[in-house]
Amino acid sequence: MVGERRGGLPRGGHLVGEGVRHPHHGHRPRRAGPAAEAPPVKLDVASLKAALVDVLPDPLVYRIAPLIYRGQEPELARLRSFVPRGRNAVDVGGWLGPWTRELSRWCGRVDTFEPQPDLAAFLRKVVPANVTVHEVAVSDAAGRTRLVVPSSRHGENALASVRPGAADADPDAIVHEVDVVRLDDLGFTDVGFLKVDVEGHEREVLDGATALIGRDRPRILLEAEQRHLDTPLHELFDHVGALGYRGWFLHGGGWHALDTFDVEQRQTAHLDDLTGPDYVNNFLFVPTEDEFTPTT
């Protein structure tokens, strides 16, 4: 039904801007004199994007999500410059499928992991035949766990977490009991690209994929943020480096070597504008034996 998000599909996820003011309503103030100007009306980007997700048909939401998402993740617009064409891809943290959709048009097969029931149901309805949606969480040990979905009205469902204690900070959070798998147990072959967006659980996902990483040597895109970690972000970078990888990040329209990344400068200083151009949270890792270097 148009106008109602079927199955309680969340409103907006990462499409929603943070810290955006609502527009003023009512009549425009009268001018006090020739030099007086009415205060500018700020577009409520958060409400606009959430409304689009709410009223549009599912297939159209799936189609436009990558287009809107590119404004917040410029790496998505450059996907074809660093993802090996024709090889298989794994998308851990599917959400509304912006990465899944673009990967499905460039890679052989895509396996997308999305443990939130509503999001997984949405994806299963809209993905093409070369995509398999797995309604499970990914970690370093198989079993069951609690998936905590924050109660925010601003699409924070994209920040769902399996980290211990995640529910303590939000007593109104929705908690799902979900199955957990290791990527190494699933028999994947020829994986050329691995994208991980799991809100602080990156190390565990990688530890459950050491055989896959050692065998297929995929290029890896990690979304990683100090605000979601209990240990220094650079320890995660060092761990990936120990697997035989070099890293880069995208900022200001160009790629920069990971050893120039400063957490304070590129994350902590911009916590009040998480969707702005100066907040960097995506990191591309390439095997050291791979001659590829991102330049575009």
From TrEMBL:
Residues 22-31 have a biased composition (Basic residues). It comes from the Bacteria. Residues 100-245 form the Methyltransferase FkbM domain. Keywords: Methyltransferase, Transferase. Residues 1-38 are annotated as: Disordered. GO terms for molecular function: methyltransferase activity. Transmembrane segments: none annotated. The keyword Zinc does not apply. This is FkbM family methyltransferase. GO terms for biological process: methylation. The lineage of its organism: Bacteria, Bacillati, Actinomycetota, Acidimicrobiia, Acidimicrobiales.
